[in-house]
Amino acid sequence: MSSGGGDALTALTALEPLAARVCPWATDRPAPELDEDPDGPVRAMPVILRLEKQDPPTPTALLEAAAAAALALCLDERSARGGEWFDEVAAWCGAGRIRKLARRARTSHWRAVQEVPGVTVSDLVRALVPGPVDDVPHEVRRLQIGGTDLPDDEPGPVPAGEPVIWLNPRVEQSTGKAGAQVGHASMILATVLAWTGGDPHRVTAPAVRTASTSDWDVWCAALEDPEAAWTRYGVAPVRDAGFTEVAPGTVTCIGQVAAGG
């Protein structure tokens, strides 16, 4: 275990509970209880996608902004210990699952949601401070969850050396679903980096691409030993809880940095 990065992340953000779940081999902290209190609140991070009727973004631009926004909120100084968002973010990260709920907005609704506490990236995605799913502001509650699909684009190769989030090439996901998943991936990748002695801020602007089936199969086979997969390929997975669109346990995407972090 490398404690330097983990200590830095603990001091900076409320992400600490994730380490014991996503890289238990890198920390001696006990894993939190995964079975949430059935009588307690279900918490989620609202992720607002800007989808204007005229000149909508490409899916790649939207997903890269979603990945960046989710992590930016967690690394924001307001999410640090003593910050105004710390309690909400820590409670969410300490829950059984880091749920995200993507909604779409445009025009006046997009402008209105800028007043709700959160972080906006590229004027395309706003990640909001997580909280109970049944207690969201009016500006968020009125936004639709469906209708987030965008036509495919061809973003080209990943720039050399950049962290990347690879989408599962064998599973169909709506743009909204994928937006939530890449947000999970950026958080997980930053956490594993931190607890293995790396810099979590390396992941603040990840590329998003669909993996080739050959690479995907190699990485998924390697994930049988997560520590070895990280050391050899620099990969960390997102496994879906199965509430929407995909079966429980599906690896929806994989975050990757240079092998070994």
From TrEMBL:
GO terms for molecular function: hydrolase activity. Keywords: Hydrolase. InterPro entries: Pep_tRNA_hydro_II_dom_sf (IPR023476). It comes from the Bacteria. The keyword Hydrolase applies. SUPFAM superfamilies: Peptidyl-tRNA hydrolase II. This is Peptidyl-tRNA hydrolase. It comes from Actinomycetospora corticicola.
